[in-house]
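Second opinion, please. Please look over this fold, written as C-alpha coordinates:

===
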Amino acid sequence: MTWEMSSDRPIYSQLYDKILVRIVCGIYRAGTCLPSVRDLAAEAGVNPNAMQQALTELERSRLIITNRNNGRIVTEDMQLINNARYGLALKQINNFLVNMRELGYTDQDTMTLVNNTIHK
Protein backbone atom coordinates (compact mmCIF):
# COMPACT_ATOMS: atom_id res chain seq x y z
CA MET A 1 0.00 0.00 0.00
CA THR A 2 1.51 3.31 -1.06
CA TRP A 3 1.63 6.51 0.93
CA GLU A 4 0.62 8.84 -1.92
CA MET A 5 -0.44 12.23 -0.58
CA SER A 6 -2.51 14.91 -2.26
CA SER A 7 -2.70 18.62 -1.67
CA ASP A 8 -6.46 18.73 -1.06
CA ARG A 9 -6.31 17.89 2.67
CA PRO A 10 -3.84 18.22 5.53
CA ILE A 11 -1.09 15.59 5.45
CA TYR A 12 -1.81 14.36 8.99
CA SER A 13 -5.43 13.70 8.03
CA GLN A 14 -4.36 11.65 5.02
CA LEU A 15 -1.85 9.75 7.18
CA TYR A 16 -4.62 9.04 9.69
CA ASP A 17 -6.76 7.57 6.91
CA LYS A 18 -3.95 5.44 5.51
CA ILE A 19 -3.00 4.00 8.90
CA LEU A 20 -6.68 3.43 9.68
CA VAL A 21 -7.04 1.41 6.47
CA ARG A 22 -3.95 -0.60 7.43
CA ILE A 23 -5.55 -1.36 10.79
CA VAL A 24 -8.98 -2.38 9.48
CA CYS A 25 -7.41 -4.48 6.70
CA GLY A 26 -5.17 -6.30 9.18
CA ILE A 27 -1.84 -5.04 7.91
CA TYR A 28 -1.39 -3.69 11.43
CA ARG A 29 -3.12 -6.44 13.40
CA ALA A 30 -4.95 -6.02 16.70
CA GLY A 31 -2.57 -6.17 19.64
CA THR A 32 0.58 -5.61 17.61
CA CYS A 33 3.07 -2.76 17.89
CA LEU A 34 3.20 -0.08 15.24
CA PRO A 35 6.54 0.98 13.81
CA SER A 36 8.06 4.06 15.47
CA VAL A 37 6.99 7.57 14.46
CA ARG A 38 10.32 8.10 12.72
CA ASP A 39 10.10 4.79 10.85
CA LEU A 40 6.53 5.46 9.73
CA ALA A 41 7.42 9.03 8.71
CA ALA A 42 10.43 7.81 6.72
CA GLU A 43 8.35 5.13 5.01
CA ALA A 44 5.66 7.67 4.12
CA GLY A 45 8.16 10.37 3.15
CA VAL A 46 6.65 12.93 5.53
CA ASN A 47 7.75 15.06 8.46
CA PRO A 48 7.69 13.14 11.77
CA ASN A 49 5.52 15.90 13.26
CA ALA A 50 2.78 15.19 10.73
CA MET A 51 2.99 11.48 11.53
CA GLN A 52 2.88 12.23 15.26
CA GLN A 53 -0.27 14.29 14.74
CA ALA A 54 -1.92 11.44 12.82
CA LEU A 55 -1.02 8.95 15.55
CA THR A 56 -2.38 11.30 18.21
CA GLU A 57 -5.70 11.37 16.35
CA LEU A 58 -5.71 7.56 16.18
CA GLU A 59 -5.12 7.50 19.94
CA ARG A 60 -8.07 9.84 20.43
CA SER A 61 -10.23 7.46 18.45
CA ARG A 62 -8.88 4.64 20.68
CA LEU A 63 -7.68 2.59 17.70
CA ILE A 64 -4.14 2.70 19.00
CA ILE A 65 -2.90 2.76 22.56
CA THR A 66 0.39 4.19 23.76
CA ASN A 67 2.25 1.91 26.10
CA ARG A 68 5.37 3.51 27.56
CA ASN A 69 7.23 0.20 27.53
CA ASN A 70 6.09 -1.14 24.17
CA GLY A 71 5.33 1.94 22.06
CA ARG A 72 2.06 2.24 20.21
CA ILE A 73 -0.14 -0.82 19.99
CA VAL A 74 -3.19 -1.43 17.83
CA THR A 75 -6.26 -1.90 20.00
CA GLU A 76 -7.49 -5.41 20.61
CA ASP A 77 -11.08 -4.13 20.67
CA MET A 78 -12.38 -5.82 17.53
CA GLN A 79 -15.74 -4.05 17.87
CA LEU A 80 -13.94 -0.72 17.58
CA ILE A 81 -11.94 -1.91 14.56
CA ASN A 82 -15.05 -3.34 12.89
CA ASN A 83 -16.95 -0.11 13.52
CA ALA A 84 -14.12 1.86 11.90
CA ARG A 85 -14.14 -0.54 8.93
CA TYR A 86 -17.90 -0.14 8.59
CA GLY A 87 -17.55 3.65 8.73
CA LEU A 88 -14.96 3.58 5.96
CA ALA A 89 -17.24 1.38 3.85
CA LEU A 90 -20.17 3.78 4.29
CA LYS A 91 -17.94 6.68 3.30
CA GLN A 92 -16.92 4.84 0.10
CA ILE A 93 -20.53 4.00 -0.72
CA ASN A 94 -21.65 7.58 -0.17
CA ASN A 95 -18.84 8.90 -2.38
CA PHE A 96 -19.77 6.39 -5.07
CA LEU A 97 -23.44 7.40 -4.95
CA VAL A 98 -22.57 11.09 -5.15
CA ASN A 99 -20.40 10.40 -8.21
CA MET A 100 -23.11 8.32 -9.87
CA ARG A 101 -25.70 11.06 -9.23
CA GLU A 102 -23.33 13.56 -10.84
CA LEU A 103 -23.30 11.29 -13.89
CA GLY A 104 -27.09 11.47 -13.97
CA TYR A 105 -27.89 8.04 -12.53
CA THR A 106 -30.70 7.65 -10.03
CA ASP A 107 -30.04 5.49 -6.98
CA GLN A 108 -32.24 2.78 -8.50
CA ASP A 109 -30.33 2.96 -11.82
CA THR A 110 -27.09 2.65 -9.88
CA MET A 111 -28.32 -0.40 -7.95
CA THR A 112 -29.43 -2.05 -11.18
CA LEU A 113 -26.06 -1.34 -12.77
CA VAL A 114 -24.21 -2.73 -9.74
CA ASN A 115 -26.38 -5.85 -9.61
CA ASN A 116 -25.92 -6.47 -13.32
CA THR A 117 -22.15 -6.03 -12.97
CA ILE A 118 -21.92 -8.40 -9.98
CA HIS A 119 -23.97 -11.12 -11.62
CA LYS A 120 -22.04 -11.24 -14.91
Observations:
- Helices lie at 11-24, 37-44, 48-60, 78-102, 107-118.
